[in-house]
Amino acid sequence: MSTQTIAVAMSGGVDSSTVAAMLRAEGHTVVGLTMQLWNQRRLAGHEGMPEQVQGRCCSIEDVYDARRVAEDLGIPYYVVNHEERFEQDVVRPFVQEYLSGRTPIPCSLCNNHLKFDQLLITARQIGADLLATGHYARCEFDPERNRWLLCRSADPAKDQTYFLFGLTQEQLSRTRFPLGNMSKPKVRELARQHGLASAEKPDSQEICFVPGGDYKQFIDAYLADQGELLPDTSGELVTTDGKVLGHHEGIHNFTVGQRKGLGVATGSPLYVININGEKGQVTVGGSDELLARQLIAHKMNWIAVDELRAPMRVHAKIRHRHEPAAAMVENAPNGETLVTFDQPQRAVTPGQAVVFYDGDVVVGGGWIAEARA
C-alpha cells in the first residue's frame, strides 16, 4: 500500500482523533490541523449569556484536546485561525437569516466555506496530498460517471451527508472519510486501543457558537457586541385565512413548525406555518396546515450528475433528522429547482437544506427558498 501525506482536520473529539491514529498506524505521514473559528469567551457576560462556555465544538478546550492527541501520536500539529472568515461566512449570515424569517444551518455553511475550502488550501500549502475528517460519510470515485460520489455512511444513525451536500468534485477528490464504514461504538473501541485521551469524550450536540442553544439570546448579544440595534421585526400573528390573532415582538423568535411560545391561546394547538420577513407577519394554523407537497430550492450543488437535465426520481431530505421522502425533482424558472413529494411533508422550512438521495448516493442539494401546499 502506498503511503501519502494526509492532513487531518482535528476537532479535539473522538472521531477526528481516531482518524489521525488510524492513518498514522497505516504508515501515512499525518499532519493535524485545527481551525480556530470563534472566541467562545467573546460574548460571555452579555445579558442572557453564560459567563463560562464548556463542552463546545471548536472551543479552546477542544484545541487543547486535539494538541494532546497529536503529541501522543507524535505528529505535527497546527492551529489555523479563521475567526474573521467564520464570522463573515457563518455567524453574520446566521443572524441575518433569522432576522429575515428563515432558519439557517450554520454547520453546512461552515463545511462549504471553511472546512472543505480553507483547510484544503492549507493542506496543499503544507504539502499534504489529501484532507481526512471524522465525518460519517463515504467518498468514492465512479469510473462510469467519471465523477466523485458522496455516499451515506454505514452507520445510519451517525450519517452526516446532509451537512456535506455543498462539496464540489475538486473537494471530494482530495477528501477522505475513514470512518464512513464504521459504527460509533467501533470508533470508540479503536480510540481506546490507540490509547487516545478523547476515547470517552462525549459528542457535541449544539451549534458551536451558540451557548446553551439559545439562538435568540445569541442574536441579541452579538448585535450588542457589534454596536448594532436589534432591528424591529415585530408584526402581526395571523391565521392562514388572514384573521389577526395578536402581535409578536420579532420574527427571529419563530421557526416553521414551532408550537410553544406563540403568545396566543386557542381551543386547539397552533403551529407556525409561515414567516413573511418583508411584512413581519407570522402565520399560524393547525397541524394539517404544516403539510407541504412542494418546495422551491436554489443555490444548487449537484454531485452525482453535472446538472439536472430531466426530471429525476429521488428521495429528498428536508432536515437532518428527516427520513428522506420519495419525490420528483425538476428544473424551475430562474435557475431554481422544484421538488414535488409523493406525500406531503411536515414543516418544510425556508433556510434549511434539501438533499437528494439515490439509494446511498447523494445526488445533490440546495437551500429551501419556499414551501408550497
Report on this model:
The protein is of the alpha/beta class and 373 residues long. Helices cover 23% and strands 29% of the residues. The strands form 4 sheets. A 6-stranded antiparallel barrel has the order 12-15-14-13-16-17. The longest helix has 17 residues, at 83-99.
Helix/strand order, N-terminal first: EHEHEHHHEEEHEHHEEEEEEEEEE
Assigned CATH architecture of the largest domain: 3-Layer(aba) Sandwich
With strands numbered from the N-terminus, the spatial order across the biggest sheet is 12-15-14-13-16-17
Uncertain residue segments: none
CATH class of the largest domain: Alpha Beta
End-to-end C-alpha gap: 54 Å
Helix content: 10-25%
User: What is the number of helical segments per DSSP (H or I, 4+ residues)?
Assistant: 8
The biggest beta sheet is recorded as: 6 strands, antiparallel, barrel
Brief digest:
The protein is α/β, with parallel strands linked by helices and 373 residues long.
Labels describing this entry:
Elongation Factor Tu (Ef-tu), domain 3, alpha/beta, SH3 type barrels, five-stranded parallel beta sheet, Rossmann fold, single chain, 8 helices, globular, 373 residues, 3 domains
